[in-house]
């Protein structure tokens, strides 16, 4: 059975026929062969299981028009943003492919979010300068699949896709005047956000000979967070962590 056949039609025109069924069969066989070779290589290497935990510095990036416009009107245009501190923790499996390349899938709990702070006045409190803070705290389950390239003994770079599932999202609002709390409320806003997020994760790390490792990375969110399509906002997270491989 030929993959392609060339012939001339009755009217003399050249005709080229491609056997798509055979092509699909060959493509599947090549994929199966590549997977078999990959798993054979992994089975002969030393698979490592590990745990990792560390700190997050999270923020949003994009046009959060409704949120920023509401805060700007409240504060008379004087607002500032800051990163939200959090942490991440979970486990991973390191699958060596060669002496300098490995694949590392993982499963982590991770805190992300965004915060805005501004000074405002109201008609009733014209002589007072109040400060309001709105903090969005998001709780995710991250599932990264990272490719690690070892450039020197222990030192490596990594990058790969990450899929995240939003477990819970809350918004806390606080307002203070002269040291007294005027407002301190928390709202569950999980339904306003997309449950699934997709990101590209990358960074660098160092693995010590005793099993410990240090890692610093950055998650660049690719999917819009707002489920109602009212603003374009994406997750951005800086991570620093300590891990241990068994």
Describe the structure.
- This protein has 246 residues and is mainly β.
- The chain has 2 domains: 1-44; 48-245, Porin.
- It has 2 helices and 12 strands.
- The strands form 2 sheets. The protein has an 8-stranded antiparallel beta barrel with strand order 3-5-6-7-8-10-11-12.
- A hairpin with a 2-residue loop joins strand 8 and strand 9 (180-188).
CATH architecture of the largest domain: Beta Barrel
Looking across the biggest beta sheet, what order are the strands in?
3-5-6-7-8-10-11-12
Radius of gyration: 26 Å
- Quaternary structure annotation: single chain
Précis, in short:
The protein is mostly beta strands and 246 residues long.
Which structural traits does this protein have?
single chain; 246 residues; mainly beta; Porin; 2 domains; two-stranded antiparallel sheet; 12 strands
